[in-house]
Amino acid sequence: MRTAVVLLLLLVAACGGKKDDGGEPNIPVGSGKSGDDTAREQARFDSERKPEKVVEALGIKPGSRVADVGAGTGLLTVHLARAVAPNGTVVATDIDGAVLELLQSRLAAAGLAEIVERRVVGSETPGLEAGAYDAILLAEVDHYFTDEVAWLKAATAALKPGGRIVISNRIHHRPRSMAAGQKAGLVLQFELTPVPTHFIAVFVAPPAQPAPPPAHGGK
Ligand SMILES: C[S@@+](CC[C@H](N)C(=O)[O-])C[C@H]1O[C@@H](n2cnc3c(N)ncnc32)[C@H](O)[C@@H]1O
Questions:
Q1: pLDDT tens, position by position, 42-70
Q2: Looking at ligand 1, which atom is closest to the CA of residue 19?
Q3: For residue 86, what is the enclosing H or E element?
Q4: How far, CA to CA in Å, does 136 sit from each of 26, 126, 168?
Q5: Whose CA is nearest to atom 22 of ligand 1?
Q6: Cα 73 to ligand 1 centre (Å)
Q7: Quick one: CA dihedral 40, 42, 45, 50, positive or negative?
Q8: The model's pTM
Q9: pLDDT for position 13
Q10: How far is CA 88 from CA 118, 147, 160, in A?
Q11: Are strands 159-170 and 198-204 parallel, antiparallel or unpaired?
Q12: Which of 22, 67, 102, 113 could form a disulfide with 73 if both were Cys (CB 3.0 to 4.6 A apart)?
């Protein structure tokens, strides 16, 4: 019993449970809540965060491959999976394998488990394969990176040509996020403020530099 209580506390602290505004924590699916409670949790999240605006910013469509970095219990992932279904993929990463188990339950309940690949990653590395992603989403996660500039540079290599890196976070994190994007060499395409609490910033990789002309004068 003591072990079960400790486990539950750890999972709630891990996120969806963790919010940095001191507000009421999200209760993850699979934590003993009923299906109705899970639906209410999702409805409250959707009205607070407007995930359809995040999907729009990502520019994803059926068949896209998108990474959801720091996906937590999957409250956003479920929207990404619907957007890329039936033949696309969401790679949901997190440093915490336990929250990804809860994410899997949420996606399975929505009939979207096949669309999502879970991946436990290290805290300072994206863990995403090169040249493979139409879009990479960082939602309420970039403030955890120790070196955000290095992280973003590494993630840029995972984009397909024309791919997007989308950062969404609480408004008070915006100056740090925007400065990191700029220092990483990303180009800001546009910004949205879908709700007063959160910003969404859409970046692309800088244009490739033309290769230098071949050196002449050799033998
Ligand atoms: C506040 S939750 C955000 C969950 C979801 N993205 C959302 O917007 O609702 C932050 C999540 O990021 C994860 N996380 C923290 N540092 C991370 C890192 N360096 N790489 C990947 N995930 C990380 C945490 O484990 C947690 O699940």
A1: 999 999 999 999 999 999 999 999 999 99
A2: 1
A3: none
A4: 23, 10, 11
A5: 70
A6: 9
A7: negative
A8: 0.87
A9: 41
A10: 14, 30, 14
A11: antiparallel
A12: 102
Contact 46, 38 (CB under 8 A): no
**φ, ψ dihedrals at 162, nearest 5°:** 80, 0
Distance 87 CA to ligand 1 centre (A): 26
Region of 204 (left: φ > 0; alpha: ψ -120 to 50; beta: rest) is beta
pLDDT tens digits, 143-183: 999 999 999 999 999 999 999 999 999 999 999 999 999 99
Q: Identify the structural domains of the chain with CATH numbers, from first to last.
A: 50-204 (3.40.50.150)
Distance from the Cα of residue 11 to its chain's centroid? 19
CA-CA distance, 88 to 160, in Å (whole number)? 14
Tokens encoding 65: 């491959």
Nearest ligand 1 atom to the CA of 26 is 9
123 CB less than 6 Å from ligand 1?
Answer: yes
CA 88 – CA 71 distance, rounded (Å): 17
The C-alpha atoms of residue 119 and residue 126 are separated, in whole angstroms, by 10
